[in-house]
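Researcher: We are triaging several targets before committing to wet-lab work. For this one, the compound of interest is flavin-adenine dinucleotide. I'm pasting the protein sequence and the ligand SMILES. What I need is the predicted three-dimensional arrangement of the protein with the ligand bound, expressed as structure tokens, so it can go straight into our comparison scripts without reformatting.
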Amino acid sequence: MRLIPRSFEYVAPKTLQEAVSILRKYKGEAKVLAGGHSLVPLMKLRLSNPQVVVDLKYLRPKLAYIKVAGKTVRIGALTRHAEIEHSAELKKVVPIMPAAAEWIGDMQVRNMGTIGGSLAHADPAADWPVVMLALNATFVANGGAQRKIPATKFFLGPFTTALKPHEILTEIQVPVPPSNHGWSWKKFERKAGDFATVNTAVIVVPGRKGEIADVSIAVGAVHVRPFRATDAEKVLKGEVPTMDLIREAAEKAAAMSEPSADLRGSVEYKREVTKVFVRRALVEACERAKLLKPEAAVVR
Ligand SMILES: Cc1cc2nc3c(=O)[nH]c(=O)nc-3n(C[C@H](O)[C@H](O)[C@H](O)COP(=O)(O)OP(=O)(O)OC[C@H]3O[C@@H](n4cnc5c(N)ncnc54)[C@H](O)[C@@H]3O)c2cc1C
């Protein structure tokens, strides 16, 4: 097997405008390079053969940041997984993000890979898309003018997003969940550092009477794209959570999955682990939101 990319032109623009105009000029034949941890392997395998590689390294000072501004966290697209993993601010306001970052690949991957690169790459088994769906994030793209795309409309299929070929993802905007929210990130992987067999992110907002006022459940790796398990959310929203309801919701989430059989397991196996991991995530999120006492969840 050849592990040498086809020859390509390399450019490293100094500004976002310059980067966008290069992408416009090459009309889909140019690819931006962020952390390179998905693009470079694909180029080596010759599964991606761009004519021009547009390295964003000089844009890092402007596009790598984590800013909490009122009710929104703004994260620059070039922020690395490790920067999110170790962010003290995020651990306080959106703890699911550092918790999920810790599960991405290994230390080398986390030290180079970027959140924007992961979202733009849209691997159906990637971790950030699932977390962003659960958090109701919005993505800011720039292709000359700025455009906002909700996470729910961003992932169109395997390795396909709503980004136009000349657009660069510049910022991720995450609404800060209420301080009493419960959350859970669960990822099932065959071996440490692997992509997910299934991954799920759950956010639960408690109401005044012990009920679930709001819930979002996102699931990845078991469909052509990550999805919100809306049938499962309907089971729980407005209800005081019980293990029976949680089991029912987990079953609905698994029923919405459409996994394909591969080296990570059969269709039936993947549906089963989806059910188990969504159930565990719901229990943990409800416990963190103080809606379920730990002893209530005898079977997780
Ligand atoms: C060994 C290994 C293990 C991994 N394990 C995991 C894992 O467990 N979970 C997981 O989620 N991921 C995993 N990954 C993928 C990793 O997280 C990548 O870093 C990530 O998917 C891509 O980010 P990047 O910054 O490296 O992007 P690049 O590789 O530089 O780019 C990826 C694609 O996105 C485009 N792109 C990049 N940035 C932008 C932007 N700002 N705007 C528009 N387009 C852009 C590029 O043109 C390219 O098409 C793994 C990778 C490796 C090599």
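Researcher: Any quick observations?
Model: The chain has a mean pLDDT of 96.
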